[in-house]
Amino acid sequence: MTPRALAAFLLLSAATSVPAFAQPAPPAATAGSNRALSPQDRARALVAAMTTEEKLAIIHGYFPPLAKPVTPIAMTPSAGHIPGIPRLGIPTLRESDASLGVANQIEQRKGDTATALPASLATAASFDPRIAYAGGAMIGAEARAKTFNVLLAGGVNLTRDPWNGRNFEYMGEDPLLSGVMAGEHIRGVQSNHIVSTIKHFALNSQETGRTVLDARIDKAALRESDLLAFEIATEIGDPASVMCAYNKVNGDYACENDWLLNGVLKRDWGYKGFVMSDWGAVHSAEKAALAGLDQESGQELDDAIHFAQPFEEAFKAGRIPMARLDDMVTRILHGVIASGLMDDPVPDTVRQIDYAAHANVAQQAAEQGIVLLKNEGDLLPLARTARRIVLIGAHADVGVLSGGGSSQVRSVGGAPVEIPLTKGAAASFARMTWHASSPMKAIQALAPQAEVVYVDGSDPKAAAQAAKDADIAIVFAWQWQTEAQDTETIRLPDNQDAMIDAVASANRKTIVVLETGGPVEMPWLAKVPALVEAWYPGQRGGEAIANVLLGDVNPSGRLPITFPVSASQAPRSMPAGLPELRAADARRAAGDTGNYGMTGGVAPFSVDYPEGAEIGYRWYAKTGRKPLFPFGYGLTYTRFAYANLKVQDGPALTVSFDVTNTGARTGADAPQLYVEAKSSAGVAAYRLAGFDKLTLSPGETRRVSMTVDPRVIARFDEAARKWHLDGGTYALTVGHFAGDSALRGTATLQPQTLKP
Ligand code: BGC
Q1: Ligand 1: residues whose CB is within 6 Å?
Q2: pTM of the entire predicted model
Q3: Whose CA, among 120, 363, 509, 744, lies 20 to 30 Å from 252?
């Protein structure tokens, strides 16, 4: 034996031999339930007790509506399931969407309602991690009570384009805000001992052509933006699973992208859970498995069921080694154990839910997320002396709008308005749906002295006449967004701009309440004295809006996303892939009935993201453009002042200052810290480096302290796979929104190199 071989032999025997005095090892399956062991050791013990067939069965899941053979559980309409292994206590994984509640998109489960949170963008707008946690905990509890043990929540793709159809499902444009809020949301979901995902990993930044597009970006820039949001959220929320996205990233599909899955996620971040695919996002067995995909989801939606027969063939031929299969299964079980699901299995009978308490969670999220954008002459809160109030548009007599797609919750109270789609990629699984939360009833309840009437707003002249006859006109403007389709413009649809203009011309006390999935252009803004962004406000949105308008709630939401003057201010002014989409539509119109699966016949195209890490407010700072409303912006019915800045620098950066409520009402403020840093691209980079949310009574002062996560202001070196914080002087500002500088300071920082 050579010395090297001897050393290897000794090492190996040390690792595998049992010392004479040790107890005999417990049988592997028992070790799987030994809570004294780490989740990873427990998962490994279970894997050691599994047959190869059992391992091969757990790496792919069924999509109920298409699944064969038909088992009762396979037919429960939901996102999918993976059969468990009862002899080892491994539960069947029962998956449901999504981040806003237990979804039931087009009422596949007849009569099954759930509590609908507002859009995640509204939760992000609260700037309050406690709101994100409470929402996650509430929807996780409902998932559990409804027998689901995997909630496909945790959407955290950064907003790169204002027209992205899924912006409402995400947490905005900033990595720190999004990462913290999504992390807390996931932590809340998993507090119920169920699995949550974080999704869609990564750069699924537009919906048009999402299954065919190649998203191209500089890798370091991606680390400093979208990936940083995922990294922070993963650290805080510790999601049991990561869902890889539909699109390609720099040439490889996200679900077979070695750099993303094996490199960034598993090697650099040390992620121990499992990667599940998005539904219909798998394109190979061997390539995907070797790149780091651990489980194929909703397999019947893929172009082939890759992780069944093709996987087995590659496995038998030795092209996928047993070690990799074991790793896949260990990771899945790690998620099941670490989330608490293994030790606290979800009962398989539906349990009662306290819907009244849960509705309050949804309402609080909506109230904290509503953003007051304009309030000339303090028109709001509404004086309770108005005799006649007219509400115009958006079905404000019966409900509030919600966003479409897999996240659609059929909320408690039902859907008073539901409009099916006649065409488009979302037509099969989305309808325009209103939650039964009537702003009209809620306003009437808070303003009993007034006559509150409703006109639908379809005729600008009639709307203007109704406004003329009223003391106050409140226009509810809507823009519906959905998964699978981007809006092609960010103008309000259905002639609403003309209607708002006419109403504002007829009554100068016009208030506009937006129910939108993100920013819209507002050509009428100068004429409208008061403006409120209510997003898709969820199941108690009507009550939340009324409380803000009448002053029972002091608005404290801040924009988690920049509102451009027009789409042309943003890096791209319309979705890429529109020509490819139109060509597919034209073929269909000409009679082509081909089944193109998930692609819808859209030819592959690529999208470049030359703005790199400089997205959202960073883009506006870099290019010197002035948006309509900046990131972080939002008014209140009181005022806040900042003073006594103190900067503690050196190796760590901590900034503290006083916040005072200088107005006459109790209210909540979201002070923000921005640092001027340098990105990997060498450009001056403006970064949100801290935020807080605090409630103060009139005259009250509280000291706020923010310690900066150095990664937020560092640049990523992709070759060295490390963050670098350059030593030197950094300018910083404390303000009410991006670009504001209520307080200015500098910090002198020592150089630092940080692990990825
Ligand atoms: C969406 C995912 C969702 C999945 C299962 C996909 O179309 O992109 O977010 O979790 O469907 O419904």
Answers
A1: 79, 97-98, 152, 199, 278-279, 406
A2: 0.95
A3: 120
